Amino acid sequence: MKTSSTYRSYLYVPAHKAQVVEKAYASEADAIVLDLEDAVPASHKAEARRAAAAMLAEGPPKPTYVRINPIGSPWCRDDVDAIAQPALQALRLPKCDLPQQIQEVAGWLDALGCDAGIQILIESAYGVETAYQLATASPRLERIGLGESDLRADLQIGVDNFTLEVCRARCVVVSRAAGLAGPIQTVYHTLPDLDGLKESTLRAKSMGFLGRFAIHPSQLPVINAVFTPSEDEIRAAERVLEAVDAAAGQASASSVFVLPDGRVVAPPLIANARVTLALANNLRLSGALA
């Protein structure tokens, strides 16, 4: 099974709107999420599915994910059958509450010979409570995240609520405990409020989120700026890996190192350094980072 890379920004786009999809691929988004679920009315589900399948078959110009319809809907199985193609980075399974839901989709992908991973959206209090069981349900599962609009409705809370922060923190902790890639923060719905988007995205980064989903191209410069590694962050990551390389040939080497500045470097920090440098290298290759 392939594992998709981590990107700074992921732009959701309704798959049935061809002109909007074209503009999305021309935007500053690092990756695109073709949406078959919330952004697509029931009358256009089949059209959206065909359009997503056609885009994947053509070979999309940017890394492409697809959010399918949830298990139990009339469209879920047909969605998976249509998008199980080599160009699919991973499918996003919404409204995920049970490990069996993940395992069922994984079984479909196995039968179709598709090596794409699965990312899930936890959108209920029950899902948050059982997040670790979900995160360890299948080797195909590469990332978990929150669907905050439905989660807020289930919890009967507003946008800026401490309970939601607790759910976000749990998502970060469970991801680490299960050995998954760090989570990607969900969308910010107030489009004109770019200052609020920046503040929210900085907070998400400080909590351990590695990127953010967007619903409009105007949000992308803010998200990309927050998640672009700074020169200081890149150099710090390089120093960590230099210390690892220097100790690799020593018979007494342990998994913990002390840098010249006195910082103790343990395996989690080494993993974080590798993520930072991988992102920086990808950005350099794309021309987004000098």
Give the % helix: 40-55%
Mean pLDDT: 93
The count of domains is: 2
Count up the helices: 12
- Low-pLDDT segments, ≥5 res: none
Q: What class, by secondary structure content?
A: alpha/beta
CATH class identity of the largest domain: Alpha Beta
Write the CATH fold name of the largest domain.
TIM Barrel
Strand content: 5-15%
The name of the CATH superfamily of the largest domain reads Phosphoenolpyruvate-binding domains
CATH architectural type of the largest domain? Alpha-Beta Barrel
Ends apart, CA distance between termini: 32 Å
The total count of strands amounts to: 9
Widest sheet: strand ordering: 6-5-4-3-2-1-7
Element order: H for helix, E for strand? EHEHEHEHEHHEHHHEHHEEH
Major sheet size, sense and barrel closure: 7 strands, parallel
Cα-atom radius of gyration: 19 Å
Shape: globular
Organism: Burkholderia ubonensis
Binding site for Mg(2+): 123, 150
Pfam family, one: HpcH_HpaI
InterPro entries: Aldolase/citrate-lyase_domain (IPR005000), Citrate_lyase_beta/mcl1/mcl2 (IPR011206), Pyrv/PenolPyrv_kinase-like_dom (IPR015813), Pyrv_kinase-like_dom_sf (IPR040442)
Walk me through the structure.
The chain is of the alpha/beta class. The protein has two domains: 9-226, TIM Barrel (Alpha-Beta Barrel); 231-286, no CATH class. The chain has helices spanning 18-25, 45-58, 76-83, 99-112, 125-129, 131-135, 148-155, 162-177, 194-207, 220-227, 231-248, 267-286; strands at 9-14, 31-35, 64-67, 88-93, 117-122, 141-146, 212-214, 257-258, 264-265. It has a seven-stranded parallel beta sheet with strand order 6-5-4-3-2-1-7. Helix 2 (45-58) links the parallel strand 2 (31-35) and strand 3 (64-67). Helix 2 (45-58) runs parallel beside helix 3. The longest helix has 20 residues, at 267-286. The model has no long low-confidence stretch (mean pLDDT 93).
